[in-house]
Structure formats: C-alpha cells, structure tokens
Design brief:
Number of strands of chain B: 19
Helix content of chain B: under 10%
Largest interface: A-B, 54 and 37 residues
Radius of gyration of chain A: 18 Å
Strand content of chain A: under 5%
Order of helices and strands of chain A: HHHHHHHHH
Distance between the termini of chain A: 53 Å
Radius of gyration of chain B: 22 Å
Oligomer: heterodimer
Number of strands of chain A: 0
Largest sheet of chain B: 8 strands, mixed, barrel
Distance between the termini of chain B: 58 Å
C-alpha cells in the first residue's frame, strides 16, 4: 500500500492503519529498535509503542516520508528505553559504543560554551550534515542515526572496517570543528 | 551538552538525508563473464596533479596490448593453486577462478569459505608479492595491500556458500620479454578474529596466516578483448587509461569515482586512493601529486561510450584524442 494511503487510514481513524503500517514498516522499525536495545522483547515493545505514537501523531501530522517519520518515533522511544534501563551502567548493543564515539565531538563538559536548547542543536546538526560529501554523510547517518554496527556499514558500502572507522573519526572531527565555529564549544 | 543530547539531536536531521543513507547500495553486480572481460574492463589509472584551480580535462588513451594468461598447470610443493582448483589451508578453502593481467595490473577472481559463526568478526588482508624474477624490477604490491572487492550475490557464492572476490594488484615491469615464461605470485591471507559475547564480555582473539603461491605463464599479446554478453551478443572492449590534469584536488581525498556513459548511466569505480608527495615547480612551490590507483569496476565499460568522469560530486568532461 502506498504511504499516502496508509497516512489516510490514520486520518480517517481506520482500524487497518496499524496493520498496514506493521506490514510495510514493522521490520524496518524493529531493526532500528533492536540496534539500540539489543533485546527482542524490548525491541518489539518499542515497535508497538511506535504504532501508538503514530496513531497519536496523525493527525495532525501528514508525513511525506512515512518510513522516516516512523523511524524517528522508534528511535526516540528506543533510546529512552535504553536510558531507563541503563541509568547507572553502560549496557550492551551499539548505543554505548556510539556514545563513546561521540565523545570525540565533546571533549569535556567544560568546553560547552553555553546552555543549549535542543531545537538549536538539532538545527545545527542538520546543517552540518548537509556540508558533508554524500558517502561520508550516509556513513555518518548509518552509524549515528540508524546505529548500524560497523560490519553492517562495511557491507552496505563495500568498505573495509578500517576505512569506515577512519571516515567516522574524520567526520566526528569535522563536527567538533563545526560546533566550535558555531560557538557551542570553546575554541581551545 | 552531553553525548546523549548530541545523539538525540542527530535523530532529528532531514528526512531525505536519512532515507538516502538507507537506500544507498554499493552497485556491485556479478557478471558471468569470461576471464578476458575482467582484463578488458579494469585497467584504469588516474593521476591528479594538484595545482592552482583550472578546468579539469580528461584525455583518454588506449592500452593497446594485453597479456593473456594461460591456464597454469604446474603443481609445486606447498600451496600452489592451479586455476579452478581449490586448496585448503588451516581449514580455509581458497579457489582461484581466473587470473589475468593487462601488463600493469593483475586481477584474480577467487572465492573463499564464508565463516560460519556470525559472532566472529575478522579483518582480511591480502598481499601480493611479485619476486624480482628474470632480472626485472616488478615492483607493484610487494608486501603491500591489494584491493579486494567482494562480489555480492554471485552464483558462486550462492551455490557453494563461499564469498567471492575480485582481487586487484598493480605490478610493473610485465612486458613482452616474459612471453612464454612463468612468473610467481604469492598471496598471503592474514586473518585476525575475535569473539565477543555481549553478555559475558568474553573476548578471544587469534591470528591465522595462510599463503598460496600461484604460477602464471604469459601466453599471448592481445590487442583487444572479446567477450560475450549474457544474451550471447559478442562485444569487443579495449582497456582504457586516462589522466586528469589541472584539478583542484589539492589536499583532498576523493572517495567516490564514477564514469558517465553516453546513455546517462553512472557506473561506480572501486579502488584505493593515495596522496603522494609531488614535485617542485620552477618557483619552488611543491605541487602535490594525487594518485588514484587500482580503480576498477565489475560492470562492463566500453570506453567509446564514456563521456565524463565523476570524482565525488565533480564532473570532468571527456575530451577525445
């Protein structure tokens, strides 16, 4: 079923909306959730919560790319679940690794120039992503949006592990430079 | 700002960017072709000269001669691998399907056992060393890395549960004086692996080294290479080489190379790049030399139909000689 038709089901409050969503995007959402939570039950729960989130969001939203709309909901829910489960320790899965990697972009709390509103930061990150060459951008998104494991990224792009790792390292460096330029980090 | 905030902020980037990242697939397709086709398609060598900014132009030349590789039949002691036979070393099976050269690069089509455990992660690296035989300096990848391109969903990999690769090594010094003679290529396979259990955080690691020796006899000189398309249409392809001058690639690394065909198709080229120290010009300025080597493609490229080269997002129009 076309995305626009599925969205229409939500708008008309049809019972079939979630069934159609699950049929088309269930696996997609599950993959995102599992990458984060690394647990089948938790991932399934996140996906179910995603459907509820979608039901509550449409209307008023009418997303142009339904998959990404749902993916964002799944990602947010899954990350929250992960934080709740791992408040006092680092859990397994890709999130711990990714958070460690992103520390490259924020050397220490002392470097934060000012309190930042999330909306501002989201805008800056979006703008930064646009400055990257295509492949570098997509590898960065695969790692830090989809939280794909490195071997999965290697397979998709046909790169070696060392190439992927060095590319991500370079991009994180660029992000730090960008954040300094925008005045978020101290330019030490 | 914390890393959690950063991770959350990344979650809200543009939808189109997120979709594009998922939809990108490295376009490697397996062609059921004769070994001669591999030699025909893959000899591309680009040298960039980084200077002040100027128009990028491509001139195409022709590699007029190819060396044919005969079926090697000599079996020596140790792990000498004839073409189309397998050898097992340390429990790993390697099969060479074909080996060809165009006089400057050597290509091998081979397959190797897929590892059964999904939990084992490994690094594969191959080295091709060409010993200094017959008093010639064969240079090339002696002790160095070669380009290994995995082929997705090939018939070989599907039928026999192996991973198929095309391996590319650049060597120099192969010429007509070697006709009828046998040279030796040694392939080394060094594997690192570790096993990690997320529950127990147990890590085991180990190394595995395998070595195979190929005997290759140079047979013929070919001016062009013929092959047959899947529908039986005969096609002749001559390898191409081209150089790119006066570019603005100073201090940059390019990741993505494509040729643009006359029908609008963009065909990805795969390979490695390097940035080498250049030369000093008359004013004492160092001109960096950006070299891209081992460029190859597993799709058929007819050089007559190439109209442009894309390096990352920059297009370079072809000028025919």
């Amino acid at each position: 079923m076309e995305d626009s038709s599925i969205v229409e089901l939500y708008w008309t409050r049809s019972e079939n909306a979630i069934a159609e969503t699950a049929s088309k995007y269930g696996k997609y959402c599950y993959t995102i959730a599992f990458n984060i939570l690394f647990n089948t039950e938790d991932a399934e729960e996140s996906v179910n919560d995603t459907y509820l989130g979608a039901w509550n969001s449409m209307p008023p939203h009418r997303p142009s790319i339904l998959s990404i709309f749902l993916g964002k909901i799944t990602r947010r829910i899954s990350l929250k679940k992960w934080r709740d489960k791992n408040a006092d320790k680092r859990g397994g899965g890709e999130v711990s690794l990714v958070l460690d990697e992103l520390e490259d972009c924020i050397p220490s709390d002392d470097d934060v120039e000012q309190k930042l509103h999330m909306a501002e930061l989201e805008k800056m990150i979006s703008a930064f992503i646009k400055t990257l060459p295509d492949i570098e951008r997509w590898v960065f998104i695969s790692r830090y949006w989809y939280l794909d494991p490195i071997p999965t990224i290697c397979k998709q792009f046909g790169f070696s592990q060392s190439k992927v790792k060095s590319m991500l390292h370079r991009t994180r460096g660029k992000l730090m430079t960008y954040l300094k330029k925008e005045g978020i980090l101290n330019d030490n | 700002m914390t890393t959690d905030m950063l991770l959350e902020a990344i979650g809200m980037i543009d939808d189109e960017d997120i979709r594009a990242a998922r939809e990108y697939r490295r376009p490697v397709t397996r062609q059921k072709v004769k070994w001669s086709l591999i030699a025909a398609c893959l000899a591309l060598f680009i040298t960039f000269l980084g200077t002040a900014y100027a128009q990028g132009l491509i001139s195409f030349g022709w590699i007029e001669k190819l060396f044919g590789i005969g079926e090697q039949t000599e079996l020596l002691e140790g792990n000498v691998v004839p073409v189309n036979e397998s050898v097992v070393s340390n429990g790993i099976t390697l099969t060479i399907h074909s080996i060809v050269t165009d006089g400057s690069s050597v290509y091998a089509d081979f397959s190797i056992d897929k590892l059964k455990s999904e939990e084992v992660q490994k690094n594969l690296s191959f080295t091709i060393s060409v010993p200094n035989s017959f008093g010639l300096d064969l240079g090339g990848y002696s002790g160095g890395k070669v380009a290994i391109i995995p082929i997705e969903n090939s018939e070989e990999s599907t039928e026999n549960n192996v991973q198929e690769y095309i391996l590319l090594a650049r060597v120099s010094g192969l010429n007509e004086s070697l006709l009828g003679k046998t040279i030796t290529l040694t392939a080394k396979y060094h594997e690192y692996h570790y096993l990690e259990s997320y529950e127990d955080s147990v890590i085991e690691s180990g190394e595995l080294t395998n070595e195979w020796v190929f005997k290759i006899k140079l047979n013929d000189i070919m001016e062009s290479v013929g092959y047959t398309m899947e529908d039986g249409t005969p096609v002749t392809v001559t390898p191409i080489s081209f150089s790119l001058e006066k570019t603005n690639f100073f201090n940059q690394t390019a990741d993505h190379f494509r040729v643009e065909m006359a029908d609008g198709r963009l065909i990805d080229l795969m390979g490695s790049s390097s940035f080498e120290k250049g030369h000093i010009d008359e004013n004492g300025n160092e001109i960096p030399n950006y070299k891209v080597s081992s460029i190859m493609s597993t799709e058929i490229i007819n050089p007559n139909n190439v109209v442009a080269l894309w390096v990352d997002d920059t297009r370079y129009q072809l000028i025919h000689d």
